[in-house]
TrEMBL record:
<protein>
    <recommendedName>
        <fullName>Transposase</fullName>
    </recommendedName>
</protein>
Length: 48
């Protein structure tokens, strides 16, 4: 999740680079509360 948060790369690209399923990474990111902002493409913390 740190890579998604710090790089701002799309989850699908990071998953491909890591050799894991993009849907699994997406679920993990969502579960930890890290999400991508739609406006600027950077990762942000989800509001509680």
């Amino acid at each position: 999740m740190r890579i998604v948060k710090e790089t701002g790369k799309p989850v699908a690209h990071i998953a491909r680079d890591l050799g894991i399923n993009k849907y699994a990474l997406h679920d993990w990111v969502r579960w930890t509360g890290t999400r991508r902002s739609r406006s600027d493409g950077t990762a942000t913390e989800a509001a509680s």
